[in-house]
Amino acid sequence: MTSAPLAARLSVPSGPLFFPVTAYGPDGAVDLDVYRAHVRRGVEAGAAAVFACCGTGEFHALTPEEFQDCVRAAVEETAGRVPVIAGAGYGTALAVRYAKLAEEAGADGLLAMPPYLVVAGQEGLLRHYTELARATSLEVIVYQRDNAVFTPETVVSLARTEGIIGFKDGVGDLDLMQRIVSAVRAEVPDDFLYFNGLPTAELTGLAYRGIGITLYSSAVFCFAPELALAFHKALNTGDDATANRLLDGFYRPLVELRAQGRGYAVSLVKAGVRLRGLDVGEVRPPLHEPSDDHVKQLAQLIERGEALLQEDK
Q: Which member of 29, 130, 219, 281 has the greatest number of CB atoms within 10 A?
């Protein structure tokens, strides 16, 4: 069931949802000073929420201690201006441990990522997320992707679970999502939040808007907040001409570039942040850095996106 504080703050966001990358120094250790600067810049640029140590933030590569340090830093840098949602994942016991670490660090909520490795049935998935929600006072958003794909009936049960306030889709099956939205609407009286969680979610923003899903994660906001803000405004005001111009000239080519390498949904984003003047370091293994040519193409795409914005002026 939806409880007010976090759900209310996320339901009508004033800007994109910001998923900061995690900064590493030359020695590979987490660089909290640079991470703080990254979070601070995002909030000052107009982020509506900070999702710390999630997919773009390399949750998989962080130790529990590093995770808590980063979440605490994000909480301190936002200073209550926007909510901070922290990642949580792996098996149930570890997900609960990360939830408690996030709670101690002052987070407002959790993005519950898929369980590690196993392909579980609906009964097991439901038990996993309900036990996680029961173990923490933080409100939970369930992330559908990879090995955690849900039936509409299971999502109805999740929506009825105390503490679970939303559902983020990283699969991209619009037929399934329409059936999920319809089933929950028919069975659960409270509002339930939905998020488009596909990589470069702006590309499918118009399609998701058609089934009533306007909340989305913006990786582009990490390195080109002005482009992300322009698209967010266009999407939410019905300015489809601007949205389509940005899709055709920037987002579609970006997605095609992202498809050139595995893990580019993270490493290409970090390269973009570095291109814009903040040295957040490289990704940790098993991810790898984009090629020099791909980084050059990314720089050209950012320039093209900036030129598109100038056409509006």
A: 219
What is the number of other CB atoms lying within 10 angstroms of the CB of residue 3?
14
Q: 43: which 2 tokens?
A: 């909030």
Residue 143 annotated as catalytic = yes
Question: Residue 312 — very low, low, confident or very high, per pLDDT cuts 50/70/90?
Answer: low
129-151 pLDDT, tens digit per residue, is 999 999 999 999 999 999 999 99
Burial class of residue 28 in the structure, from the number of CB atoms within 10 Å of its CB (0-12 exposed, 13-18 middle, 19+ buried): exposed
Q: Which of 24, 98, 129, 143 is catalytic?
A: 143
Q: Which amino acid is at 271?
A: A
**Which one is predicted more confidently, 191 or 286?**
286
**Residues within the annotated binding site for pyruvate?**
56
Question: Which stretches of 214-261 are assigned E, i.e. beta strand?
Answer: 215-218
Quote the tokens at residue 267.
Answer: 């490493």
Cβ-contact 263, 289 below 8 angstroms: no
d(CA 240, CA 237): 8
| Tokens (6 digits) for 151 | 């039936």
Question: Residue 100 has which token pair?
Answer: 């408690």
Q: How far apart are the first and last CA of the chain?
A: 45
Question: What kind and span of H or E run contains 100?
Answer: helix 92-104
Nearest Cα residue to 65 out of 37, 39, 97? 97
